[in-house]
Amino acid sequence: MKIAIVGTGYVGLVTGACFAEMGTDVSCVDIDEFKVERLRRSELPIYEPGLDEMVSRNVEAGRLHFTTDIRDVVNKVDVLFCAVGTPPEEDGSADLSHVLSVARSVGKYMERYILLVTKSTVPVGTSLHIKAAIAEEQATRKVKIPFDIASNPEFLKEGAAIKDFMSPDRVVVGIESDRAKELMSKLYRPFLLNNFRVLYMDVASAEMTKYAANAMLATRISFMNDIANLCERVGADVNMVRTGMGSDIRIGSRFLYAGCGYGGSCFPKDVKALIKTASDYNYPLRILEAVEAVNEDQKQLLFSKLMEYYGELSGKCIALWGLAFKPETDDIREAPSLTLITKLLEAGCKIKAYDPVAISETAHKLGGAISYADDIYSAVEGADALLVVTEWKVFRMPTWPDVKKQMRHPLILDGRNLYDKKEMEDIGFIYRGIGR
Fold it and tell me: Which of 183, 247, 234, 260 is nearest to 416 (CA)?
C-alpha cells in the first residue's frame, strides 16, 4: 500500500516513519527544500527518542521518501494524510490556511480517486471546508473525480510518540463512506496484531474527540494545580491528596500531578481553539476558560515564590533546571520556562539554564538573553536559587552536597515536586515545592 503525508513536522514525520516501519510505502511532502534535503540524509528537524534511527532505517530500506512537490505523489497513492500545522490566530482560532492549501492542491492535481485524511488538529466542521476546496478546484478544471475525506486525529505524547503510534490504546477514525472505511481498515490492519481498537465514527465527532480529549487532560492538570495552591494555604500535602484521589478507580492517577503549569504544542492551542469554537456558536465553555486562566497564573508561581522569599530580585543569579515543556523533547512552545524567564529578566535577574536537549531551541528563540550551562552542576554555580522547571530524569538524583557547595544561597524551588522536603532540609537546603 502506498500513502503520502503532507507536512514533516512532529506529527507528519512520526506518522510517516511509523507507517514505513510496518511495511507501508510512504512519501512525505514538505515545501521546505532545505528541510527535505536534510531528511533525505536522515537529519531530523525535531528531537524524539528513537525517531532518528527509525527514519534512517526506512530511508535506507526504500520505504520512506521525501519530496517538495505534491504533484509527484497525489496520483500514485491510495491515501493522502494532511499533517500540516494549524497555529493559533490572535483570537485563539486555528489557522486553517495550510490545511486548505493541501485540499486545493489535491483538487488541482488529482486524476483518480483519493482518500484525503486530516491528521492535523482542526476545529469541528473543517471537513466541509476541505470538501468545498477540492470541489472548487475540480470545478475550475471542469472535472468531477470522486474522492473521500476522513479524520484521523493524533494522540501522540511528545517523548513517547513512537510507542504511542505503534501500540496505541485506540485509533479514532471519522469516515463518511464504506470505501473510506475499507481503506483505513486496510492501512491499520497490521497494528491490530497488538489488539488495539479502531473507533469509527462520523467526521465531526472525530474532529471534536481530539479537542475534547486534550481539553480534559488540561482540565485535570489545572484542577490539581488549583488544589495544590489551596493545599499550601490549609497545610495539606498535594502529593498525599493526589494519591488518595488517584486510588479511586473512577478518577485514576494520570495527569493529576501538580506543577508549574502545562505547555507544549497541543494543550494550550487546543484549549484556546475549543473555547473559540464554542464562542462562535454562542456557547461559553466556562470550565475551559477557568482551566486556561489557572494555567497562565501557574506559570508565574515559581516567580511569585521567589519574590516572596527575596522581596528584591535585581542582580540575583537564578539557575534553571529544565527548559522544554516536558521531558524527552526539545519543544519549548508555550513552555512554563519561557514565562518564568520573561518575569526573571524583567526583575533584573541573571539566568543560567540547563536542559538535556532544549538548549538549542531556547537559544534560537531567546539568543543571548540568558546563559546556558553544560550540565546541572555548572548551572548552579554562584546561584542565589535553583528553580526546577522540567522533570527530566537526570534531575532526580544529583549529588546534592556538590549542588549545595556550588550555590551562593541554598534555595530550591521545585516546580515539579521531584524531591522529598525533609531530605532536602536535612542536607541544608531551603526547600519550596508546589502544594506542600
Answer: 260
Cα dihedral 370, 373, 378, 379 sign: positive
Q: Which residues of 66-94 are buried (b: 16+ CB within 10 A; e: fewer)?
A: bbeebeebbeebebbbbbbbbebeeebbb
pLDDT score at 196: 65
pLDDT surpassing 80 at residue 194: no
Cell matching residue 409: 544561597
- Given a contact cutoff of 8 angstroms between Cβ atoms, the answer to whether 332 and 360 are in contact is no
Residue 247 contacts by C-beta under 8 Å, 6 or more apart in sequence?
253
> Which residues make up the CATH 3.40.50.720 domain(s) of the chain?
2-200, 211-297, 299-432
Cell numbers given for 204:
465531526
Q: How many CA atoms lie within 13 A of 39 on its CB side?
A: 29
pLDDT in tens, 164-186: 999 888 899 999 999 999 999 99
User: What fold is seen in the domain 299-432?
Assistant: Rossmann fold (3.40.50)
18 is catalytic: no
Alpha helices in 116-254 (DSSP H): 126-141, 161-166, 178-188, 203-234, 238-246
Q: What is the DSSP string of 77-120?
A: -SEEEE-----B-TTS-B--HHHHHHHHHHHHH--S-EEEEE-S
Task: Say how far apart CA 167 and CA 20 lie, in whole Å.
Answer: 15
Whole-number percent of the chain with pLDDT over 70: 99
The confidence score (pLDDT) of residue 168 equals 86
**Interatomic CA distance for residues 347 and 237, integer angstroms:** 30
Q: Which of 28, 82, 260, 266 is catalytic?
A: 266
Nearest to 389 by CA among 312, 306, 326, 318: 326
Protein fold of 2-200: Rossmann fold (3.40.50)
The per-residue pLDDT for 124 is 93
Instruction: Please tell me the number of Cα atoms within 13 Å of 4 on its side-chain side.
Output: 22
- Measured over the CA atoms of residue 19, residue 20, residue 24 and residue 30, the dihedral's sign is positive
Helix (H) or strand (E) holding 150: strand 147-151
Instruction: Assign domain 211-297 to a CATH class.
Output: alpha beta
Determine the Cα–Cα distance for residues 341 and 318; give it in Å rounded to an integer: 10
d(CA 325, CA 330): 8
**What is the spatial distance between Cα 141 and Cα 132, in angstroms, rounded to a whole number?**
14
Query: What's the predicted TM-score (pTM) here?
Result: 0.91
Q: How many residues does the chain have?
A: 436
Predicted local distance difference test score (pLDDT) of residue 220: 98
